[in-house]
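Lecture notes, continued. The same structure-token format from the folding unit now serves as the input rather than the output. Read the line below as a description of shape only.
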């Protein structure tokens, strides 16, 4: 699982693990509105060496709770930064789709270009979110990082694996003035 904006419309990608092994993968599901993509490794790959991270209920995190962000900022693989949950319930605007991701997690853990798709972990090593965006005037870390909550990921991923896409409910209403 990674961010849609990381793949940027590609149908295939390379996946590199911490041990340095790189495998070819194909996109099996994508949701631009939630900024999520599912990749499936197509090379000869043994799952015996892979230990998935446990996923926590993101509704249980609290403001000021310590968190850890893992990613590859500026190509520096396996970078770990720490911080706290600065806020929950942030609406993460997605300028590419015009829709926003609800209930985003705001953190002051350093998130930079290259952290996208990496996990945001609680102190028990459980995934509470996926690093996805920063708010910065310079394009680098300014203390405002955002993650997609694990509860959104848990809800959408099974459908992406099964159907390849996810249908988001929406209401087509627009307002206007009346005299």
């Amino acid at each position: 699982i990674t961010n849609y904006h990381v793949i940027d419309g590609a149908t295939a990608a390379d996946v590199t693990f911490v041990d340095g092994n790189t495998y070819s993968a194909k996109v099996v599901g994508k949701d631009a509105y939630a900024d999520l993509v599912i990749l499936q490794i197509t090379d000869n790959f043994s799952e015996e060496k892979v230990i998935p991270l446990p996923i926590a209920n993101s509704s249980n995190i609290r403001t000021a709770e310590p968190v850890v962000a893992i990613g590859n900022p500026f190509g520096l693989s396996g970078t770990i930064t720490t911080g706290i949950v600065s806020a929950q319930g942030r609406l993460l605007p997605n300028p590419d789709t015009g829709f926003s991701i609800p209930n985003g997690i705001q953190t002051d853990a350093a998130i930079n270009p290259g952290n996208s798709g990496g996990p945001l972990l609680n102190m028990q090593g459980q995934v509470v979110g996926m690093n996805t965006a920063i708010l910065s005037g310079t394009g680098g870390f300014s203390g405002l990082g955002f993650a997609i909550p694990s509860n959104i990921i848990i809800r959408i991923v099974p459908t992406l694996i099964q159907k390849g896409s996810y249908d988001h409910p929406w209401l087509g209403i627009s307002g206007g003035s009346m005299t």
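Point for the exam: Residues 150-163 form the longest helix (14 residues).
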